[in-house]
Write a structure and sequence with these properties.
The structure holds two protein chains of two kinds.
Chain A: H1 2-6, E1 9-10, H2 23-27, H3 32-61, H4 71-105, H5 114-133, H6 161-189, H7 202-234, H8 247-281, H9 288-301, H10 317-329, H11 331-345, H12 354-377, H13 379-385, H14 389-419, E2 421-422, H15 425-451, H16 467-498, E3 500-501, E4 527-528, H17 536-541, H18 563-589, H19 599-602, H20 605-630, H21 634-664, H22 673-704, H23 714-742
Antiparallel strand pairs in A: 1-4, 2-3
Helix pairs in contact in A: 3-4, 3-5, 3-16, 4-5, 4-6, 4-8, 4-14, 5-6, 6-7, 6-18, 7-8, 7-9, 7-18, 8-11, 8-12, 8-14, 9-11, 11-12, 12-14, 12-15, 14-15, 15-16, 18-22, 18-23, 20-21, 20-23, 21-22, 22-23
Chain B: H1 3-9, H2 15-31, H3 38-55, H4 57-62, H5 67-88, H6 96-99, H7 104-110, H8 113-126, H9 130-138, H10 140-162, H11 172-195, H12 214-220, H13 225-257, H14 268-280
Helix pairs in contact in B: 2-3, 3-5, 5-10, 5-13, 8-10, 8-11, 9-10, 11-13
The chains are: A mainly alpha, B mainly alpha.
Chain lengths: 743, 281
């Protein structure tokens, strides 16, 4: 090992590493650093827009019985403010930071899939513009960021605002999922030698876990949104109670995404704090394993607590009881983290830079937000204060006082790395104190307003004792907060021109991103230092007193993964959740008698069974085809590939004939809930089969053109896996829809 | 009848259950030469859980009265008793007769996590098909078959995680995915049972009051058939997932506790010398 310590691990550098210049080079870039910067700039624009929306609402609420805004304008503003801040600011900011930092922190040259990375970014401005286009097309959505049905259904939300909302969220969702798949593949396969998973910087670890949350939670939203869209445009009844649909199902679907989403917005912030606090307290993080494990705990539990958003719906005592218990449970791992950060600072040589100030404020404000969150787990309190400003205060303490303060801390911490210049500390301190005072003034009083019964989402309020005063205080605080953001912008502009040059490692930090120049060269590293602990730069600077070696001498984890495989498996995981939601909807609605067509009268399990056998056989042939390709038997491979496509085509034709038969009976997708759920579920599966067939056709064309002979067969294996997945989904769908009829 | 009277009187001293429990403890202790350690504790816990499942008032309630009690039995047999028993077994290399001899086929099944996964999750789903669920409550032999099969499927499910034959355990990361996906499988069924008006086990809708405890259950405890089914669905959904999560944390702890060389040298003694060597370099 002593040899490795003296020589760096060389990374091959590209021939032309000089960065291209000009605007087009930014549009066409696939460099993760530039994409990261683009993410951050785009979100900054949306942050200002969302902030202005908030300030407009605060002006309206400054005085009782105010008529600065009309009720409808107010509805549009709070919907747009929520949607913008969550989907266009917080999530992409965190993804953008991860995009910039993760490859640097793991000593990689770029993300695993650079072009996919560019796609995920460009979906963000697309989605953002589409959402804001609704303003020109008859009005923004005015149904709240969670778009509760039936308010969001066609009869009640008559402008096209909700349609733009659904499409834009779908696009943004796809972008986030693609970015997360990329991050998972990057973290699993692109790490520098020696950086085992157990030596990962905590920011990377939390981004890793967070990416799993994204690929598991976002498809739930996407499925719900697709159903809402079908409801609005094809006249179906998923969430329309007038025809037997269930508005509560929308809430279940939405919050089964919505609660993990809370942690999607919090975990990366935890990661930032876990980097900033140790560096400025000059101590390694206290209880690395506990911080890492509690992240896993939060991620797992976050899927089992969503119904606490729905206590007021009336789900019944047993349900309330269970979800109150799990909601309280999730406070434990979060508490562990807060204790770990506090313990890291305890006895440390704390340097109160602006970044550290924001981190400390995060700790206090997030704890306040967390504690008020626990009160919501107590069902009777929830009944009392849900839908009031107490809730608004709570989640702003978590999201602004928590996540945004962490992002500001991260910005002051990493800005030198990104630009090569340090942000002015003088302006930074001003920025911090104004933000701190402004934020707490704006939101702390809202706790009291909520407890006094002031309802959220109402455009004005009566002149009750104290309400006018508290609201005025809140508005003043909000403007102070807005001013602090202007100072941040000013600081960025000034420091970009005249800031103190940063050097490679201005904070004497320990993780790999500080081992390269600021800003990093296009290839990130010429050489990556040896990594044997969690603080490689500490080991480098203090060879006489290095950190203990983590996880033995092994330079690699026990497993070796290939990036295409990781990518396709992550993709299939997210697809499974999407189908899971569709299957749930089918099961939910088809368990009792209903008017109109029923499965028994419409479907023929035996006939479909034969087509099912064809699809299963095609799974076998593609498996065999890959085996043949591995043994370099190219003609057999082509032959089997063709057979697979034929079998897939037979299945699709069978499916089409079944559809035709049902159409002949006069049954359409909007006939009743059976037809709605049946056509949606089998239709989406059919779509996947068609995509699979197209992919196989491309493979076949390539194969006949003589490709794959050099042994680059990852693409074939990936598409093979996708095909198996499509077949497996059909097996489940077939059992749920058809086999049940035979039982 | 009051709750207290019920809890005292409703024990079912089934000779079969008692024989199995006593025999298990005796055989285990005899093979251990009556030395007690932590593994004995696991065995005792497992046996007590087994006894409570089949002899306590839970069994009486599950016998035609409460769907949720039936679900509790289900979870105990599938998710609690097997892992406890597996934890109590001393670690050992794979016996020869399982590698080459008569029992090779069993070894083949046990080595394929996908098969075990389907046995475990399938066990949950299969016995909740309305037809099978009703049959199990009304026919005593199908009922017994259900108990035995649940236990066996439970063992099969936990085998890749807790097998005493270390070589057959799957890697910790894979194990986490294995358990998490099983949780999803349960969740789906749990959600459907909780929120859908489906009658999973229609027999529980109109219980025959053999013991005269129906007023106690429905009036005093407030467990109407609708609430009972909701409770059953929730039991399968939330606590079942929490059990899987415990497994995931145990795997996480095991993974972080590894020295990193264990993948190459499984025995702890050699790992130590290996480590010393690498430090000496």
């Amino acid at each position: 090992m002593s040899e490795a310590a003296s020589t760096f691990n060389a990374i091959e550098t590209p021939a032309a590493a000089s960065a291209p210049r000009g605007l087009f080079s930014w549009v066409a870039t696939v460099d993760h650093k530039r994409i990261g910067i683009l993410y951050l700039l785009t979100t900054l624009v949306f942050f200002v827009i969302g902030g202005i929306e908030a300030l407009l609402m605060r002006i309206q609420l400054a005085r009782p019985n105010n008529n600065f805004l009309s009720p409808d304008a107010f509805d549009q503003l709070f919907t747009m403010h929520g949607t913008t801040m969550i989907f266009l600011v917080v999530m992409p900011t965190l993804i953008g930071l991860a995009n910039y930092l993760v490859p640097l922190m793991i000593g990689a040259r770029d993300m695993a899939f650079p072009r996919l990375n560019a796609l995920s970014f460009w979906l963000l401005p697309c989605g953002g513009l589409l959402l804001h286009f609704s303003l020109l097309a008859g009005g923004a959505p005015a149904v709240g960021w969670f778009s509760y049905a039936p308010l969001s259904e066609a009869p009640y939300a008559t402008t096209s605002g909700v349609d733009y909302w659904t499409l834009s969220l779908l696009i943004l969702g796809v972008g986030s999922v693609a970015a997360s798949i990329n991050l998972i593949a990057t973290i699993l396969t692109q790490r520098a030698p020696g950086l085992t998973i157990r030596r990962l910087p905590l920011f990377v670890w939390m981004i890793f876990i967070n990416s799993f949350l994204v690929i598991l939670a976002l498809p739930a939203l996407n499925a719900a949104i697709v159903m809402l869209f079908i409801d609005r445009h094809l006249g179906t009844h998923f969430f329309a109670p007038a025809n037997g649909g269930s508005a509560v199902l929308w809430q279940h679907f939405f919050w089964s995404f919505g609660h993990p989403e809370v942690y999607i917005m919090a975990l990366p912030a935890f990661g930032i704090i876990s980097e900033v606090v140790p560096v400025f307290a000059r101590r390694p993080i206290f209880g690395y394993e506990f911080v890492a494990a509690s992240t896993v705990a939060i991620a797992l539990l976050s899927f089992g607590v969503w119904a606490h958003h729905m206590f007021a719906v009336g789900l019944g005592h047993p349900v309330d009881l269970f979800f109150a218990a799990t909601s309280m449970m999730i406070a434990v791992p979060t508490g562990i983290k807060v204790f770990a950060w506090s313990a890291t600072m305890w006895g440390g040589a704390i340097r109160l830079t602006t970044a550290m100030l924001f981190a400390v404020a995060f700790l206090i404000q997030f704890t306040i937000g967390g504690l008020s969150g626990i009160t919501f787990a107590v069902v009777p309190i929830d009944w009392q204060v849900t839908g009031t400003y107490y809730l608004v205060a709570h989640f702003h303490y978590v999201l602004f006082g928590g996540t945004f303060f962490a992002v500001f801390a991260g910005l002051y911490y990493w800005f030198p790395k990104i630009t090569g210049r340090i942000l002015s500390e003088r302006l930074g301190k001003l920025n911090f104190w104004m933000a701190l005072i402004g934020f707490n003034t704006a939101f702390f009083v809202q706790h009291f307003l909520g407890l006094m019964g002031m309802a959220r989402r109402i455009y004005t309020y009566p002149d009750l004792p104290g309400w006018g005063l508290l609201n005025m205080i809140s508005t003043i605080g909000a403007f102070l907060l807005g001013a602090s953001v202007l100072i941040l912008l000013w600081n960025i502009i000034v420091s970009l021109r005249h800031g103190k040059p940063a050097g490679d490692n201005p904070w004497q930090a320990w993780t790999l991103e500080w081992a390269t120049t600021s800003p990093p060269p296009a290839q990130n590293f010429d050489r990556v230092p040896p990594i044997r602990s969690r603080r490689p730069l500490w080991d480098l600077a203090h060879p006489e007193n290095p950190d203990p070696i983590v996880g033995g001498a092994a330079a690699r984890d026990g497993f070796v993964l290939e990036k295409n495989r990781v990518g396709i498996v992550s993709f299939l995981i997210t697809e499974s959740v999407f189908f899971l939601m569709l299957i749930l909807a089918y099961l939910y609605y088809n368990n009792h008698d209903m008017n109109g067509p029923t499965p028994t009268s419409m479907l023929n399990p035996q006939r479909t069974g034969i087509y099912t056998l064809c699809l299963l056989a095609s799974s076998f042939t593609i498996w065999l085809a890959v085996k043949k390709l591995e043994r370099k038997k190219h003609s057999a491979f082509r032959w089997l590939l063709t057979l697979t496509i034929l079998l897939g085509a037979v299945f699709i034709i069978g499916q089409g004939r079944e559809y035709l038969r049902i159409f002949h009976e006069g049954v359409m997708v909007n006939s009743n809930l059976f037809a709605t759920t049946f056509f949606t579920l089998t239709g989406f599966h059919g779509l996947h089969v068609c995509i699979g067939i197209i992919a196989l056709l491309i493979l076949m064309a390539l194969a006949f053109a003589g490709d794959f002979k050099q042994g680059r067969i990852e693409a074939v294996k990936s598409i093979g896996l996708y095909w198996h997945f499509v077949d497996a989904v059909w097996l489940v769908v077939f059992s749920v829809i058809y086999l049940r009829l035979l039982l | 009848m009051t709750t207290r009277q019920f809890l005292i009187s409703a024990w079912n001293w089934n000779p079969w259950v008692i024989t199995i429990c006593v025999a298990t403890i005796l055989i285990y202790s005899a093979r251990n030469r009556f030395r007690f350690n932590r593994k004995t504790g696991w065995l005792l816990a497992g046996t007590i859980m087994f006894f409570l499942t089949l002899a306590s008032p839970i069994d009486t309630l599950a016998d035609g009265y409460l769907f949720s009690a039936h679900m509790m039995q289900h979870l105990l047999l599938l998710l609690i008793v097997p892992p406890l028993i597996l934890l109590s077994l001393p670690s050992a290399p794979v016996p020869d007769r399982f590698q080459n001899g008569h029992w090779k086929w069993l070894n083949w099944i046990l080595r394929h996590p996908l098969a075990n996964w389907f046995l475990g999750v399938g066990g949950m789903w299969l016995w909740h098909a309305p037809m099978l669920c009703n049959a199990a409550v009304s026919n005593v032999w199908i009922h017994r078959l259900q108990y035995v099969s649940l236990l066996l499927m439970g063992f099969a499910f936990w085998w890749p995680i807790l097998s005493p034959w270390r070589k057959q355990r799957i890697a910790p990361l894979a194990g986490m995915i294995y358990l998490f996906s099983a949780c999803l499988g349960c969740t789906v069924l749990g959600i459907v049972i909780t929120f859908s008006p489906v009658e999973v086990c229609s027999i529980y809708l109109h219980p025959i009051d053999r013991l005269g405890i129906l007023p106690l259950i429905q009036n005093l405890w407030g467990l109407t058939p609708a609430k009972d089914q909701q409770l059953g669905g929730l039991l399968m959904w939330v606590p079942a997932c929490l059990i899987y999560f415990c497994g995931i944390f145990a795997l996480f702890a095991r993974w972080h506790g590894e020295t990193g060389d264990e993948a190459i040298v499984p025995e702890s003694k050699t790992t130590k010398t290996h480590l010393q060597k690498s430090h000496g370099h």
